[in-house]
Amino acid sequence: MELKHLVIREVMKEEEKPAVVADRGGVVTSSTDIASQMVESLNNALARRSTLTHGSFNQENPAGYPFIDAFSQYLESEQTSDAFSTLCDTGLAQLTAAIDAPSARSATGGYVVFSHYTLERYEFLLVALVRNRATISLGDDLTPQQINQLDLDKLHQAAKVNITNFRKGKESYLSFTGTKETGSVTHYFATAFGCTDVVPSKKSTSDLLQAAKDFCTEHGMYDEREQVVEDVVSYLNRQRSEKLTANLPEVEQIFDQYIPPEQAEELSGSFSRFANGERYQVSHEFQPHTHTLNNLTKLKLKSDNWQADLSKKSIGTPGTGNDIEFDEENKQLVIKRLSTRVIEQLRKALAQEE
């Protein structure tokens, strides 16, 4: 990791009082090993989350989110320490305003870490809210005592911008979290920085199916791959027909049924994180895309005198035992095992011709 800039500030929020930014903190020397280790720990903690939402900046109302314009100006500048500090000040102003909103009344403060870094050829901006945790240490006389320690393994809120993808004009370049407090999901942090989850359902659907295939391939589940993907598609179709969203934990349950016993300890409960990570960026919850699913499951044929909508899984070559057999050599399509209803429809149609 190459850490370019680091700013740490503290936001304090007491009950029934407005949020304020503490005077202490500011620009931190980014060239030290401990600074890089801290940011790397935060980046890894975010990567371990399997409930990230992916999206982009809110382009419908950029004026309502000053951080968006400030971010663009920072990228166009020489990206000095002062320029990064100015960007952070804008973000802090938006964050305190979002915390004070009635919808975020359960929100509390913490340490806000802004970092600009490069990792594996990608450039990122990570904004994370972390807090202290109480832990136990031994004093000089070996007496146990409680001390406060920064909890780098638990991100209370975070938003990460993939600057490389942002510059390329990709549809999705943001990853952000939410937390559950007093029974309701709070989105004040993502809102403060103008994050929105408008990743097209087509992309989420196709990326999930690609992740499903790759997960099976990379873990040697070759025999199970076709059935797993078919079950995932069936699940997506069912959610779509019932006008429900799809979510990764339910897809993960499908995978866990097919994981071989010898791999269960390693792979069970891991698909959500696999699909939700930087590689595929499938959001924790999304709406299945009808056209994408139809392309995967259905085949529409049209000739001069007839047309047919077929299920792809029903089609095979002669001798495969499928309900529909395609005989390329004889230019024939044979449909077997006709239902009583279909037979009756055909009989009536022929009778009318006579």
From TrEMBL:
Chief location bin: cytoplasm
The entry's keywords: Cytoplasm
GO molecular function, one term: single-stranded RNA binding
Subcellular location, record wording: Cytoplasm, Nucleoid
CC terms in the record's Gene Ontology section: bacterial nucleoid
Signal peptide positions (record): none
Matching InterPro entries: Nucleoid_associated_NdpA (IPR007358)
PANTHER family (alphabetical): NUCLEOID-ASSOCIATED PROTEIN YEJK, PTHR38772
Family affiliation: Belongs to the YejK family.
Name by which UniProt lists this protein: Nucleoid-associated protein
Provenance organism: Neptunomonas marina
Lineage, top ranks: Bacteria, Pseudomonadati, Pseudomonadota, Gammaproteobacteria, Oceanospirillales
